[in-house]
Design a protein that fits this description.
The protein is α/β, with parallel strands linked by helices and 674 residues long. The chain has 22 helices and 27 strands. It folds into three domains: 3-350, Aldolase class I (TIM Barrel); 379-471 and 633-673, NAD(P)-binding Rossmann-like Domain (Rossmann fold), CATH 3.40.50; 486-521 and 556-627, 3-Layer(bba) Sandwich (FAD/NAD(P)-binding domain). The protein has an eight-stranded parallel β-barrel, surrounded by seven helices. A five-stranded parallel beta sheet has the order 15-14-13-16-27. Residues 379-641 form the FAD/NAD(P)-binding domain.
Length: 674
């Protein structure tokens, strides 16, 4: 690639009083470090690594302007002079690399997860057990002052600006929309009244911080909830914010309670850049595109086509802090691409855990998972080139070890090679590509198509043997399981055996859901934005409030029964922020999701089951077994008996629902310790 591959991405952006070195904004993401003891030292290291990686502008996770606006009882706020010092640790580290950083001011409103929450009206959020109190006029006026105070404190802490969070269904967004604003005073009713809070906050902030300070406003351009904004209201507010003195307008997409996915892996790349483009036409300040922008090619296309002036990426910079530098060096193939799985980032945050990243376990652990040169070079064998083996092999080789990676298959990736075939999970191709490049760069000796024996490994004179041999499907004891129409998930995803039009899937964990998705989808919508938008009911003509219309589900080529023994909700164990999407996908294809099932026997005509006290025959063409896995540790005992040092990682250690997050982290940690 030539230097002109991403000319728009690396063009500086002149803001008048200051300049950004490129068009990459690291979007706001709460990490959980904000609340940890000593967390700001770790947070400073986290942001420093992204600044060193080339990001032009960083926006922090949301910081409340007062106590009642906190996301949780012990959430971060910027309201007292003594809050300044810890934030200064962050800004000083970022500024060393020519990046700029803004603190996001976020009042959670009815999304505050505590009993002291306030909102425009006493309307409880469907995702929160706490009902808010309606704000008094005095509380509204004080909150405006608190925003201005927070901005001034941020300025003292060395921030280059603030982002006022006006989207995602938080307080300001709640005032803007009739869904949550049922007031009949000067702060409700007409849109002029409903947008008062947003404008008065910007006015107050600008008055407090002066002209030479960035104010970003996160404008909800597409609420994706009933009784949200109209497009005319979005444009009216955007123009009014310009007049009020905002420097940049950032795009907000969807409320947290919306039933339309906005960032999970099945959402097409850059699926919402069309609305940013529509709003940008009416404005003069720079406008930022967001959501599912995870490659420099996508970012460049958005900028080159005039859809936006900047691109926001949050999770892609968790996945690879060197994203920007690699793109500038024409090394896009070496970027550790975000696969939008949410498993270690958003899922963790919503469970009050520290965020990290499935494909980069060092994210938010920069001071703890430190890769240093090994004191003694070792000769190491790794058996299994799945996620755990790849993570270990590359990190160990980076540390200077002589690493030999074996796999009996003729390609790396292990179970990721099956996952990437699931409609909506095409991003898994990117992780395999990344590890393929990293293997070359780190000098790992890759030996594919080579099954290993204990004798062969012992003959290799290895100091350490790491077994990342993965899992094998669990056998189940049901009469008739040996019949020819009974298949395992590998028969379907690996061997592509023919499957009939009526199917029973035994096991409703992640694999059962994936197989059901695979069997009921003829075309992956993640590769077709227009069709995906129709399927989920996004009204791109914006005729309705919130940008919603009736969904148009795709028809399924098969009738599928997804069965589980447990009485719990089918799919309960799926990801906190993505499980509802998978359930909704299957529901739209009329998949029968049945819990509390007893399996009696499999017969040529189908499978006999019992549910709710009734025994019945499900007449199906195929029964597919997705009933979990067991570790594959065949080599361990022989090696240990011969005195060989052996380590188990990934599925070979614990075969829990093909947990790539744990596997990659475990491989990385072992490589750092070795």
């Amino acid at each position: 690639m030539t230097q002109s591959s991403y000319p728009h991405l690396f063009e500086p952006l002149d803001l008048g009083f200051t300049q950004l070195k490129n068009r990459v904004l690291m979007g706001s993401m709460h990490t959980g470090l904000e609340e940890e003891k000593g967390g700001f030292d770790k947070l400073a290291a986290f942001y420093e690594e992204r600044a060193r990686g080339g990001v032009g502008l960083i926006v922090t996770g949301g910081i409340s302007p007062n106590f009642r606006g906190r996301l949780a009882p012990f959430g971060s706020e910027m309201s007292r002079p003594w809050h300044v010092a810890k934030h200064r640790k962050v800004t000083e580290r970022v500024h060393q690399y020519g990046a700029k950083i803004c603190m996001q001011i976020l009042h959670a409103g009815r999304y505050s997860y505590h009993p002291f929450s306030l909102a425009p009206s006493a309307v409880k959020a469907p995702i929160n057990p706490f009902k808010p109190k309606a704000m008094s006029e005095r509380q509204i006026v004080n909150t405006i002052k608190h925003y201005a105070r927070a901005a001034r404190l941020a300025q003292k802490a060395g921030y280059d600006g603030v982002e006022v969070m006006g989207s995602e269904g938080y307080l300001i967004n709640q005032f803007l929309c009739p869904r949550t604003n049922q007031r009949n005073d000067g702060w409700g009713g007409s849109f002029e009244n409903r947008m008062r809070l947003a404008l008065e906050i910007v006015d107050a902030v600008r008055a407090r911080v002066g002209n030479d300070f960035i104010i970003i406003f996160r404008l909800s351009m597409l609420d994706l909830v009933e009784d949200g904004h109209t497009l005319d209201e979005v444009l009216q507010l955007g123009k009014a914010l310009e007049q009020a003195g905002v420097t940049i307008i950032n795009t907000g997409i969807g409320w947290h309670e919306a039933r339309v996915p906005t960032i999970v892996t099945s959402v097409p790349r850059a699926a919402f850049s069309w609305i940013t483009e529509r709003v940008r036409r009416e404005l003069t300040v720079p406008v930022v595109a967001v959501n599912r922008i995870n490659t420099p090619e996508i970012a460049e296309t958005i900028l080159a086509s005039g859809q936006a002036d900047m691109v926001s990426m949050a999770r892609p910079l968790l996945a690879d802090p060197e994203f920007v530098n690699k793109a500038q060096r024409q090394q896009a193939d070496k970027i550790n691409t975000c696969i939008a799985c949410n498993q270690a980032c958003l899922d963790h945050v919503f469970e009050n855990k520290r965020a990290s990243c499935l494909v980069n376990p060092r994210a938010c652990y920069e001071t703890e998972l430190v890769v240093t040169q090994a004191k003694r070079k070792k000769r190491v064998a790794v058996v299994g080139a799945g996620p755990a083996g790849l993570a270990f092999a590359c990190t160990a080789a980076e540390r200077g070890h002589d690493v030999h990676l074996f796999d009996k298959a003729d390609a790396i990736g292990g179970q990721f090679n099956y996952a990437k075939q699931i409609p909506g999970k095409e991003e898994f191709y990117e992780t395999i590509r990344y590890f393929s490049e990293r293997l070359k760069d780190t000098g790992v000796h890759l030996k594919l198509g080579q099954a290993q024996s204990a004798d062969g490994l012992l003959a290799g004179n290895f100091d350490e043997v790491v077994l990342a041999t993965g899992v094998v499907p669990r056998r189940i004891d049901i009469p008739g399981v040996e019949l020819p129409h009974v298949l395992g998930y590998l028969d379907v995803l690996r061997d592509h055996k023919a499957v009939g039009s009526k199917v029973a899937v035994i096991g409703a964990g992640g694999i059962g859901f994936d197989v059901s998705e695979y069997l009921t989808t003829e075309k992956s919508l993640s590769l077709d934005e227009a069709e995906w938008s129709r399927r989920w009911g996004i009204d791109k003509s914006y005729q309705q409030r919130g940008g919603l219309q009736a969904p148009q589900p795709e028809s399924s080529p098969r009738e599928v029964w997804l069965l589980q023994r447990k009485d719990s909700k089918v799919g309960k164990g799926l990801g906190k922020t993505s499980g509802w999407v998978h359930r909704s996908e299957l529901k739209s294809k009329n998949v029968h999701m049945w819990n509390g099932v007893t399996y009696h026997r499999i017969v040529p005509e189908g499978i006999e089951i019992e549910r709710n006290g009734e025994r019945t025959l499900l007449s199906v063409d195929n029964v597919i077994i997705c009933a979990g896995q067991v570790p594959m540790r065949d080599l361990q005992q022989q090696l240990l008996e011969a005195g060989q040092s052996v380590h188990l990682i990934g599925g070979a250690d614990v075969a829990a629902e093909l947990d790539a997050k744990r596997a990659i982290r475990q491989g990385t940690e072992l490589a750092i310790e070795l």
